[in-house]
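This part of the workshop introduces the protein records we will be handling. To make this concrete, we reproduce a full record directly below.
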Amino acid sequence: MNNEERLVAVLALPVSVEQIAAAIRQMRSADQQRLLDMVPELRQAATQVSSRTLDEARVSVERLRAEVAQALGGQRLSPDAPFLGDLTLRQYLDLPDEERARLWEAETDVDLYEVQRAGGPT
């Protein structure tokens, strides 16, 4: 069997992306690095997705800011105004980004990471 036939045989295996991901998670760091060296497209794809997602997030933030400003008639919220749950706007803005994301996920009962992965709203 030549290299091309081996490649076709490997690609024909009925393996899901989830199974491949589980196998990669179980690999040692050195083997994961070796995989990235063997398949540089993985690194390129990860970089492209991250920058695209960041750009989409910026556009979404600007769109949301405009919608909120319009809904508030151009008036800004007071830092002491109730904002989310028991938090005021000031308290919310003082939280780290990770905590803000956790609060929104809990409030909306939606995993924002899963929505993003599924290509949902930005």
